[in-house]
Design brief:
Elements (H helix, E strand, L loop, with lengths): L2 H8 L2 H14 L14 E13 L7 E7 L4 E7 L12 E11 L2 E5 L2 E4 L5
Parallel strand pairs: 3-5
Antiparallel strand pairs: 1-2, 1-4, 2-3, 4-5, 4-6
Length: 119
């Protein structure tokens, strides 16, 4: 059994996904979350890890956690309760100004591009 095959078999699914996301980002002009600083305008390609829907009694906003293989950022669209096509597991590219809220990286109201669903 070759070393490359052995490494692939012994690597966790999460590690495989992280490596794939990093390779995908290298082909575009996308940054890595781990290299970004607050105040930067960033373009990040990643996978939606989770979605938070706000109750109707609160101001409308849609929040997702986007993972790029190096880290996770919170992406928030204010004034939106949902965006068609955005769901957990969906890949997308977001572009916007990186902020920091309570020590966590956040991008508000970014431009976004939905990527094809992975089989």
């Amino acid at each position: 059994m070759g070393i490359a095959l052995w490494d692939r078999l012994m690597t966790s699914r999460a590690d495989q996904e992280a490596s794939e996301l990093q390779r995908e980002s290298e082909g575009r002009e996308c940054g890595r979350i781990c290299d970004c600083s607050p105040g930067d305008t960033v373009t990040i390609a990643g996978t939606v890890r989770s979605i938070t829907f706000r109750p109707r009694t609160e101001l409308p906003s849609l929040e997702i956690d986007l993972y790029d293989g190096t880290g996770c950022i919170r992406v928030i669209w204010l004034g939106r309760r949902r965006i068609l096509g955005i769901s957990a597991g969906r890949r997308l590219v977001v572009t916007g100004r990186l902020n920091q809220v309570a020590g966590e990286p956040v991008v508000y109201n970014p431009r976004y591009e939905l990527k094809p669903m992975v089989a």
